[in-house]
Amino acid sequence: MSSSASSFQKDKIPAQRPIWREVFVGLDWLALRSSPVFYGIGVPRGDQSAVILVPGFLATDHYLYEMYYWLRRVGYRPYLSEIGWNAECLDVLVDRLSQTIAKAKDETGGKVHLIGHSLGGVLSRSAATQHPDQVASVTTLGSPFRGIRSHPIVLETADRVRARILSRPGRREDQPDCYSGYCQCKAVTSLQVNFPPEVKQTAIYTKTDGIVDWRVCLNNDPATDFEVSGTHVGLAFNPSVYRLIALRLSGAARRA
């Protein structure tokens, strides 16, 4: 199933996730460093197509350098998202990502692949829905693209970001629901329509996620949903995730 009807839920509901598990993110990183996958062993080689990495909430591109250089080792042309700090109006962030997509497509001559961690995956799906002619595939890592179901601490932090956006001089008065599931901007409304059937999708999640409810991170399609063990933050450093990415990108490359 390459297309899925949207079941995006606009409301915000706290999810009592085991946030204490996130202290084990270092184990994910150590497992990656000791895995043959990290060195490109036992995974299919890429075709030099463009792969753009998109960071999660409150993060910048910098923590994705591990995956960036791994993608280069296994035969892809990686790009960072260039969206800046992921604590901004979603429409602004998707517009910035769209510029990077256009640049990567122009430089490589082919459709691009998007890999988004957490909120970065939500941005990636929105951008792909808006530009299906430029995107070959979207891979989400613990991304709550079905609704806002996160740990209360995360929701409180998001509320502070929203308050900053709304209090900013010169903000758009026609978007009073900015940075919420009720916003009518292109970034949010793109999540409420069917995902483009021509864009291959992959949803990677962990049931031990300490940040978001893993149930809102699924396509609800066994062929495109993949469970791994580990932490939410550690999905960016998880060897099982890297192996799945290599396998799924290889398959997507043949279709693009």
Structure description:
- The protein is α/β, with parallel strands linked by helices.
- It has one domain: Alpha/Beta hydrolase fold, catalytic domain (Rossmann fold, 3-Layer(aba) Sandwich), CATH 3.40.50.
- 34% of the residues lie in helices and 14% in strands.
- A 6-stranded parallel beta sheet has the order 3-2-4-5-7-8. The chain has a two-stranded parallel sheet with strand order 1-6.
- Helix 4 links the parallel strand 4 and strand 5.
- Helix 3 packs across helix 4.
- It is globular, with a radius of gyration of 17 Å.
What keyword list fits this structure?
8 strands, 256 residues, six-stranded parallel beta sheet, 14% strand, Rossmann fold, single chain, two-stranded parallel sheet, 7 helices, alpha/beta
Class from helix and strand fractions: alpha/beta
Order of helices and strands: EHEHEHEHEEHHEEH
Number of E-state strands:
8
The CATH class is identified as: Alpha Beta
Give the mean pLDDT. 94
In angstroms, what separates the terminal alpha carbons? 16 Å
Report the uncertain regions: 1-5
CATH topology term: Rossmann fold
Helix percent reads 25-40%
Q: Output the number of helix runs.
A: 7
Could you tell me the strand content as a percent range? 5-15%
Rg, alpha carbons? 17 Å
CATH architecture classification name: 3-Layer(aba) Sandwich
> What is the domain tally?
1
What is the approximate shape?
globular
